[in-house]
Amino acid sequence: MGTDFSRFYDGLDDATVVQTFSDYVNPALSQVLQFIGFSSYEVEAQGSIVRDSSGREFLDCLGGYGTMSLGHSHPKLVAACKAQLDRMAFSSRILFNAPQAMLAKKLAEVTPGELHYSFFCNSGTEAAEAAIKFARITTKRKKLVSAKGAYHGKTMGALSVSGRDKYKTPFGPLVQDVENVEWNSIEDLERAIDADTAAVLLEPVQG
Ligand SMILES: Cc1ncc(COP(=O)(O)O)c(C=O)c1O
């Protein structure tokens, strides 16, 4: 097997990709995408431009839901990723790690309070999940307060503190002792926080 993934981008016809996606990834999503009018597939992206298999260019206003805020394949980011992969693709998980220590120090410098612990993770969902667990274990309290309409992720904990029943109801019973308050209402927040409250989860972006 070669290591060049271009075979997945060049020479495949649109119908094959669409059919394979429908058969093996997600038929419902495939239907939605086709309903919107898409029948091609993405082949490359630079900055804010995404190109498809027919050579069309799209202005990407979604930015990977915010994960591409520097633009697609920013040269500095690509260079940094390549350099790190060449040096060490994954931490040994047992020796001290200098970039991790230095980044944690920087985070402590730019955030309020006296930050002495940092937990690095791969997604917003994991951050919410960890925050819930840290709050419960350190405070020995249970109640979690978050906002109506909020989205914090899809794992059971993160979903439990989300504020949309549509996403939560099908997966119950969820993590208990959660109360959703009105967004932007200090009065409702003050009312909800009591002696058993372990954490208040508020994200500036509701999601
Ligand atoms: C406001 C908000 N919080 C949390 C998340 C979950 O983050 P992730 O998808 O990285 O797990 C998202 C994801 O879209 C989000 O928009």
Give an account of the 3D structure.
This protein is an alpha/beta fold. It folds into three domains: 5-81, Aspartate Aminotransferase, domain 1 (Alpha-Beta Complex), CATH 3.90.1150; 90-119, no CATH class; 124-201. 38% of the residues lie in helices and 13% in strands. It has helices at residues 14-24, 27-36, 75-87, 98-110, 124-139, 156-160, 165-168, 186-192, and strands at 42-46, 49-52, 57-59, 143-147, 178-181, 197-201. A three-stranded antiparallel β-sheet has the order 1-2-3, with no helix packed on it. A three-stranded parallel β-sheet has the order 5-4-6. β1 and β2 (49-52) form a beta hairpin. The model has no long low-confidence stretch (mean pLDDT 95).
How are the SSEs ordered, and which strands pair?
Blueprint: H1 14-24, H2 27-36, E1 42-46, E2 49-52, E3 57-59, H3 75-87, H4 98-110, H5 124-139, E4 143-147, H6 156-160, H7 165-168, E5 178-181, H8 186-192, E6 197-201
Parallel strand pairs: 4-5, 4-6
Antiparallel strand pairs: 1-2, 2-3
The chain binds pyridoxal-5'-phosphate.
Quick description:
By secondary structure, this protein is α/β, with parallel strands linked by helices.
Number of domains: 3
Largest sheet: 3 strands, antiparallel
* Tally of DSSP β-strands: 6
* Euclidean distance between termini CA atoms: 40 Å
Radius of gyration: 22 Å
Strand order of the largest sheet: 1-2-3
Unreliable residue stretches: none
| Small molecules bound in the structure, each named once | pyridoxal-5'-phosphate
Q: Residue share in helices?
A: 25-40%
Helix count?
Answer: 8
Give the ordered list of helices and strands: HHEEEHHHEHHEHE
